[in-house]
Write a structure and sequence with these properties.
The structure is a single chain. The two termini are 31 Å apart. The protein folds into 2 domains: 8-138, Response regulator (Rossmann fold, 3-Layer(aba) Sandwich); 144-214, Winged helix-like DNA-binding domain superfamily/Winged helix DNA-binding domain (Arc Repressor Mutant, subunit A, Orthogonal Bundle). The protein has 10 helices and 6 strands, in the order βαβαβαβαβαβααααα. By secondary structure, the chain is of the alpha/beta class. A 6-stranded parallel sheet has the order 2-1-3-4-5-6, sandwiched between helices. Helices cover 50% and strands 14% of the residues. The chain has helices spanning 17-28, 42-52, 68-78, 93-102, 114-125, 133-139, 155-165, 170-177, 181-195, 200-209, and strands at residues 8-13, 33-39, 56-60, 83-88, 106-109, 130-131.
């Protein structure tokens, strides 16, 4: 009899005890997920994540002291293997762009239904980018005509853009495509130049419009 796969490990960061308890309860009710730790501020989160080695962190944007955006950016630098999902009350699309640029692989509103949060967690753990449906229309409202057609890209450039948009680092893309990091950097820069897209958030938006994020 095959042994079931181990639950994916989730770390929670939120300074509101009621919200933290609610999210913890929802996650722990899932057989394929396990809460391995939690924190109410950035420094405690960094320490806890270093000790528990989670697969992902669900991070409240509005934290005391160092905010969630800066924490997510720090996680990307210090723990690139930990995927970050941002949890927030803010519905301004500027927050989405800021979080994606910082390295978040997902964004969900606190007022969303419990099943939406679980879906977001699983989507991010599967390697995708998740944007709360309420925010999706705002995030994707930039006309596609602002960028060149993907036909201008080579197959390698498209492969690199897809993986970068999904949140993988140049090193991780390098491993997946069996190419050197320097080669990946070259393809990424060349694709960005052709498309006229300078930020990761712009690449995510473009890849979503192309339908690449669900492949």
């Amino acid at each position: 009899m095959n042994k079931p796969p181990s639950p994916r490990r989730v770390f929670l960061v939120d300074d509101h005890p009621v919200v933290l308890a609610g999210v913890k309860s929802m996650v722990e009710a899932q057989r394929d997920l396990k809460v391995v730790g939690w924190a109410s501020d950035a420094e405690s989160a960094i320490q806890g994540i270093s000790e528990t080695d989670p697969n992902m962190a669900v991070v409240d944007v509005s934290l005391p002291g160092t905010n969630g955006v800066l924490l997510i950016e720090r996680l990307r630098q210090e723990f690139p293997q930990v995927a970050a999902l941002a949890l927030t009350v803010h519905e301004d699309s500027a927050y989405v762009h800021q979080l994606l640029q910082a390295g978040a692989r997902g964004f969900i509103l606190k007022r969303s239904a419990a099943e939406e949060l679980i879906h977001a967690i699983r989507s991010v753990l599967a390697g995708g980018i998740y944007i709360d449906p309420v925010m999706a229309a705002k995030v994707l409202s930039v006309p596609k005509t602002n960028a060149a057609s993907s036909e201008a890209l080579s197959e390698r450039e498209i492969a690199v853009v897809k993986l970068v948009a999904k949140g993988y680092s140049n090193k991780e893309v390098s491993a997946q495509l069996s190419l050197s990091v320097k080669t990946i950097e070259t393809y990424r820069a060349r694709a960005a130049e052709k498309l006229g897209l300078r930020t990761r958030a712009a690449l995510v938006r473009y890849a979503t419009l192309e339908g690449w994020m669900v492949e």
